[in-house]
Specification:
By secondary structure, this protein is mostly helical. It has four helices and no strands.
């Protein structure tokens, strides 16, 4: 027998000895007390078992990092778009000035902004495709 069973057996023996000494009038109280202790032990055992089982299901650090990166890529793409639009206004004013090239400067400025956003979108798309092609077994 393991120590928990020995301890439980000793507890039961003590409860039975107390019943013999105190008599039948205390039997219900003694049984209730023993059952409460037994319930507490069973609850603790179930909690330990559940804790061990949930440890097996904790995502690994690599999986958490990969999930964090996949959630962050959408926000990073949105940030780039907002920053591009925010910077596009003053850059448009500078590029469209007659000293900077006028309409040709404006087209070159926006071609650069569109090119940067397009390259970022392709990079995000490639990253998502690589993440989705890897399964749980990788």
């Amino acid at each position: 027998m393991d120590t928990r069973q020995d301890e439980l057996r000793r507890d039961l023996d003590a409860t039975l000895q107390a019943r013999k000494e105190l008599g039948k009038e205390y039997e219900d109280a003694l049984v209730d007390s023993f059952m409460k202790r037994l319930d507490a032990r069973m609850d603790a055992r179930v909690d330990r078992s559940a804790a061990r089982r949930t440890e097996d299901y904790e995502p690994s650090r690599r999986d958490r990092d990969r999930d964090d990166r996949s959630r962050g890529s959408g926000r990073a793409g949105n940030r780039l778009a907002v920053v591009s639009l925010g910077l596009g206004i003053p850059l448009s004013a500078i590029a469209a000035s007659p000293e900077s090239g006028g309409f040709a400067g404006l087209l070159a400025c926006w071609a650069g902004i569109v090119g940067v956003n397009f390259a970022a979108a392709l990079g995000n798309r490639r990253d998502r495709r690589e993440r989705s092609s890897r399964g749980d077994w990788d």
